[in-house]
Automatic annotation (TrEMBL):
Organism this protein belongs to: Aliirhizobium cellulosilyticum
GO biological process: regulation of translational fidelity; tRNA processing
Family stated for the protein in its record: Belongs to the SUA5 family.
Role: Required for the formation of a threonylcarbamoyl group on adenosine at position 37 (t(6)A37) in tRNAs that read codons beginning with adenine.
Coiled-coil ranges per UniProt: none
PANTHER family: SUA5, THREONYLCARBAMOYL-AMP SYNTHASE
Cellular compartment(s): Cytoplasm
EC number: 2.7.7.87
Record InterPro entries: DHBP_synth_RibB-like_a/b_dom (IPR017945), Sua5-like_dom (IPR006070), Sua5/YwlC_C (IPR038385), Sua5_C (IPR005145), T(6)A37_SUA5 (IPR010923), TC-AMP_synthase_SUA5 (IPR050156)
Protein name as catalogued: Threonylcarbamoyl-AMP synthase
Domain YrdC-like: 13-201
Chain residues that bind L-threonine: T35, H67, R122, A141, S181
Catalytic activities: L-threonine + hydrogencarbonate + ATP = L-threonylcarbamoyladenylate + diphosphate + H2O
Length: 330
């Protein structure tokens, strides 16, 4: 089986109708979102969710984000506290996932939540939103890549990785944000807003809207509360070395802001996430450049320092997980 690709610019209505048909049959569809491409399936059906896990090779204790078309749909499945609702009203549609308690009558299947009593909900923009509205039910949609590998930001990335496992890929061009959504949860006891995963919405913007600072974890999570919390994640085949100021001959180099790196002339490939030091541009290029560095044949990817502010926090989070020891490593 080789996936069919439908371009939404050329065939918008056919893209919606064919995607809805495959989803109704219980199979996943790769769809564009503003963050990364998602592997979407009906969040209310066990068989559909199982097909996501099977396609990705994803551990079933890692929950899936469920995507809705608006707050009204979200309220059919989860319970909003006032702070969470305010953030949804401010930032939806957009790259913010909010972890909320499930309603007792929620039909989101436990396979999508990994058995938790909470669910991560997001309202995406563009085609994904139109598809959910047409489909009428939430879509579980992790990134459309083999579990633990680099997230896709184009239909080509999806085809290269999963094209022989899917029926349909919807091509919406390059993902404009380029990193996954920010995930937050409001602590029901203290009212604190917990940052579970930095992402495409900078934490400072959430803090401004909420009128309070976000709380960050000081160590590894005791339990997996949301997607992207595994220590090793977003990993290329090559090893990743962070905060590099010099590289060895044959290493791949990823730098930022035109900063000089000793030995760069000997790099297998030399990539700059943003020569103008624009963190939004760097986020949009991150996964594409990791893939290009990995494809260079280098056994190691050296990444120069990136500011840990604004979207830099999300970029450094992804790079830290890409550099984490893999299974069987110290």
């Amino acid at each position: 089986m080789t996936a069919e690709i439908i371009n939404i610019t050329h065939e918008p209505q056919r893209a919606i109708s064919e995607a809805s048909r495959v989803l109704n049959d219980g199979f996943p569809v790769a769809i564009p979102t503003e963050t990364v491409y998602g592997l979407a399936a009906d969040a209310t059906r066990a068989d559909a969710i199982s097909h996501i896990y099977e396609t990705k090779g994803r551990p079933q204790f890692n929950p899936l984000i469920c995507h809705v078309c608006d707050i009204e749909m979200a309220e059919r499945y989860a319970v909003f506290d006032p702070a969470s609702r305010k953030l949804a009203e401010t930032f939806w549609p957009g790259p913010l996932t909010i972890v909320l308690p499930l309603r007792k009558d929620s039909t989101i299947h436990p396979l999508a939540t990994a058995g938790l009593e909470t669910v991560g909900l997001r309202c995406p923009e563009g085609f994904a939103n139109d598809l959910i509205r047409d489909f009428g039910r939430p879509l579980a949609a992790p990134s459309a890549n083999t579990s633990g590998k680099i997230s896709p930001t184009s239909a080509r990335h999806v085809m290269d990785d999963l094209g022989d496992k899917l029926q349909l890929i919807i091509d919406g061009g390059s993902s404009p944000v380029g990193v996954e959504s920010t995930i937050i949860r409001v602590d029901p006891e203290t009212g604190a807003i917990l940052l579970l995963r930095p992402g495409g919405l900078a934490a400072m913007h959430i803090a401004d809207a909420a009128g309070r600072d976000l709380e960050r974890r000081s160590g590894p999570a005791a339990i997996i509360e949301a997607p992207g919390m595994l220590a090793s994640h977003y990993a290329p085949g090559a090893s990743v070395r962070l905060d590099a100021t010099a590289i060895e001959p044959g290493e791949a180099l990823i730098r930022f802001g035109g900063q000089p790196v000793a030995g760069a002339e000997k790099a297998a490939i030399d990539l700059d996430l943003s020569p103008s030091a624009d963190l939004a541009q760097a986020a949009a290029n991150l996964f594409e450049y990791l893939k290009r560095a990995d494809a260079s044949g280098a056994s190691s990817i050296a990444v120069a320092p990136i500011p840990n502010e604004g979207l830099g926090e999300a970029i450094n989070d992804r790079l830290g997980r890409a550099a984490a020891p893999r299974d069987g490593e110290e």
